[in-house]
Each structure stands twice: as structure tokens, then as C-alpha cells.
Amino acid sequence: MKTIALISTTGGAGRTTLTSALAVLLARRGRPVAAADLDPQNMLGAHLGLDSFAQVGLGQAMAGRVEPWRDHTWRNADGVLFAPHGETTLAERTEYESRLAAKPRWLTDALAQIDFPPRGVVLIDTARFPSQQAAQAIAAADLVLCATPLEPAACATLARRFARLHQSAARVKVVVNRLNPARDMQRDALALLRAAVGNALELVHRVHFDAAVPESLARGGWIFDDVPHSQASHDLHGLANWLDAWLDGDLADSAEPAP
Ligand SMILES: Nc1ncnc2c1ncn2[C@@H]1O[C@H](COP(=O)(O)OP(=O)(O)O)[C@@H](O)[C@H]1O
Ligand SMILES: [Mg+2]
């Protein structure tokens, strides 16, 4: 079983969108898939089909209030097993963050309890990096996908934090999300990012902007079902295919597309 953390240095970068879409696309390729929500926004469940926000989940487990956390998991229509964050108060989050700081491998140990075959994969949606939640996810991960829109604030924070991220993570791949090649500003932002992270950008994957992404979410569907021939659907399938091959361990770095 391998673990993939979805992180970002700004909010709204697409962590939850990518976690849920990739979980479903990998499940449809026949993989056992689990998804864990470590973001107090508690949105992963909504993306994966819950009608209302789960009250109890990993947030309460991290605070030491429920045990075992596996009793608070769900399975979506595509067979993805998922653990919502749950609704937490500020006091509960303060409590669990200090517990996490004292137990840097809490999540690694918790995920080891999932009885998954070697082909299985766990995707982790996190709070923004840096945070206790992101640190736990990175510590547990074999691969870190760092989502970023090509906007100045997002690229500047990623550029500033990339070195630290790179030191702490097994392997980092940048996913540029909401790409709109018609906007000059995005080309400038990519140049800024490239100057800051250098060769690591050879690990970039791109997902184009498409208004159908939030529209499909609002209808409880997926862009790759609603608009299967769109560029964004093609990009998501491309990333899922890359991950599928990476999970089988047969993809060399040199085979990755340049940005
Ligand atoms: N490729 C995309 N094209 C258009 N909208 C997108 C795309 N990816 C994400 N979004 C939208 O951007 C918003 C933020 O995405 P979300 O996944 O919630 O970010 P995060 O979890 O990083 O905060 C959501 O409304 C989502 O539907
Ligand atoms: Mg989110």
C-alpha cells in the first residue's frame, strides 16, 4: 500500500478536488483506494457524495475522543473508502494539533491499520502547508502532490517554501491547477515558480481551468463523466494514469512530461 499526500501552500488550490477526483479515477482502474480528510474544512465527504457533513471523523480521532477511527469511515459509489475530518470546534483543533505535534507519526500509524493489499493506495487531503495536518500527511506519504494555481500569491508562497517541503518529503510532484494558457499573468507566475524551484519543475503535471469542475461538483457528479472530452478531464485522466503506473513502480522520472 502506498500513500499520496495532496498539499498546497494556499487555500483553494484544488487539494480536495484532486484528492476526490484521483481517488475515483484510481478506483475505477480497479485499485483499492482510501481517502483521508485532514482538513478542518471537512469538504472531502461532500466531494465523495455525502449529503450532509459528517459530524465525527479523523478530527475527533486526532483529538483522542473516538477510537478506533475506522468506525467512522464511509464508502462512496465508486468503492472509495473514506474517512471524513468531522466537524470540530476551535478548542478540539487546538487540542489535536498539540497531540499531533507530540506524535509526528500519528497518521502513519493510523493508516497502517487499514488492511489493504500492496496494490492499494491512500490519498490524504490536508490543511494548507505548513500545518500539523500537512506535516503528518507528508510524514506518512510516499509521494507528495503539491497543487498550485498560477497566481502570484500561490506561486510566491510555494517558491518560498519549496526548499523546506522538498527536504521533508519523500518525493514531491507539483500539479499546476486551474491552468489558463490565455492569461499572460500565468506565464509570468510559471516563470517565477520555475526560477525558484528549478529542476523540480520537471515534475510538473497540469490540470486546465474548466468551469465544469465546480458545476459538476454542485450537481454531485464528476467533470470526467459530464464533459469527458474536455481538456481538464483529459488532464485528470493523465494524472491518474501517471499515478497508476507510479503505483505499479514501473515509471521512471525521465518518462515524465516537461511543463
Ligand atoms: N481545474 C479546475 N478548474 C476550475 N475550477 C477548479 C479546478 N480545480 C478546482 N476548482 C475549483 O476551485 C475551488 C477550490 O478547490 P478546492 O479543491 O476546494 O481547493 P482546496 O481544497 O485546495 O482548498 C473549488 O470551487 C473547485 O471546484
Ligand atoms: Mg479543500
Helix run count: 11
CATH superfamily: P-loop containing nucleotide triphosphate hydrolases
| Average pLDDT metric | 91
* Shape, principal axes of CA atoms: globular
Share of residues in helices:
40-55%
CATH architecture: 3-Layer(aba) Sandwich
Q: CA-to-CA gap between the ends? A: 29 Å
Q: Biggest sheet: strands side by side, in what order?
A: 3-4-2-5-1-6-7-8
| Low-confidence spans | 251-259
CATH class: Alpha Beta
Assembly classification: single chain
Task: Describe the SSE topology.
Elements: E1 2-7, H1 15-28, E2 33-38, H2 44-47, H3 58-62, E3 74-75, E4 81-83, H4 90-102, H5 106-111, E5 121-126, H6 132-140, E6 143-149, H7 152-168, E7 172-179, H8 184-197, E8 205-208, H9 212-218, H10 223-226, H11 231-247
Parallel strand pairs: 1-5, 1-6, 2-4, 2-5, 6-7, 7-8
Antiparallel strand pairs: 3-4
Helix pairs in contact: 1-11, 7-8
The structure holds adenosine-5'-diphosphate and magnesium ion (MG).
